[in-house]
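Changelog excerpt

This revision adds worked examples to the README so contributors can see how folded entries look when concatenated. The first example is reproduced verbatim below.
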Amino acid sequence: LLVRALVPGSVPGHTAEDVVTAKLDYGRLDRPESPVRIRLNATVVGVRHAAGTESGEVEVVWARDGAVATARARGAVMACWNMMIPYLCPELPEKQKDALLYGVKVPLVYTSVALRDGRAFAKLGAREITCPGMYHSAVRLDRAENIGGYRSPASPRQPALVRMTRTPCEPGLPERDQHRAGRIELLAASFETFERSIRDQLVRVLGGGGFDPARDIEAITVNRWPHGYA
């Protein structure tokens, strides 16, 4: 909705209902003639006061496709993970850097698993299952949402989407160190590790309902957030 308002023509429709199934035109996001330009896959690596200017301009250094470029502006909003700002803005006062570095965020994984159907959940009479000690701590059917042209499954015989949650940590360490250890684990974990753990966990949790991972899993998406919540 925000992109549609900022870059007219990028997303069709006019309401919150019709945006759900709308397809975004990525070619419209970064056009020179547009008053708002959204540049994807452009990672900021430094922000500083522009040298040789008295107007207070800032210079933003960003990287994409192996190349580095700069842009100048009257100001910049650092709408990113606070912990990274001291590294991106070395001119900040040390006291402010210390404050920004204070919070260590919890690493978080949201895994989505597309199933052939939801009959295993129906046979077990469950929608959400808590799994302390397992690779993912919670398994639940995605909430039923009917909005605009989107309709959720209305029968256990229809395809189902499962949400699994994981917050890796290292028990026994101080809280901040647990989060750091979990972030390292996330960085090192391959998709194969996630897939193997997901298949094993779902058959242990849903096997009583007739679940077969080889037959019932259609797709897996793993969203790894090293910067979940403080």
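The second example, added in the same revision:
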Amino acid sequence: MDVTEEIQTTGQLVAKFESTIASQVSGQITTVLADEGEAVSEGQILLEIDPELRMLELANVEASMAEAQAQVVENWRDLQRIKNLRERGATSQALLDDAETKLELSRARQKAAEARLGLAERALSDATVRAPFSGLISRRYVSVGEFVNVSMPIYEIVALDPIEAEFSFSELDSAVVQPGQTVFI
């Protein structure tokens, strides 16, 4: 008769990927598109944090950017006129220096506006929360209408393929366990 020796132990299943998704922008949650227990795919939209506000902020920054660009063009034209007058001796060096300074200041303002534009575009993108990988929503921390701050947890997502089993057994049983043996979970 064959005798089968079994070792029974308890353990836990551990996901290869597990993540707590946090808010990268503050604002009111306007749309929730995924709930606990739902399977989601990488890149899928989970929720939105007041994207209308972010679009308005972006439009405001784009207007500031256009204004800064127009100021650069205007100051460049003024500088060219003053240079022509200076070459003819019809204006002072101080006026030319002032025009060059104004042009440099307007270029600096344009670069600052470009940076604000990048931040506004990023905030609009971050207002749409997406799944970082395919998996299951194990927990949803927020609801529609709630106000969230930066770094506030929104979801926990777990990838269940592949999944690992962690368990331990006593030292007495270690002599019986060999590599390559079958384990039933």
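Reviewer comment on example two: Residues 51-87 form the longest helix (37 residues). The chain has a mean pLDDT of 92.
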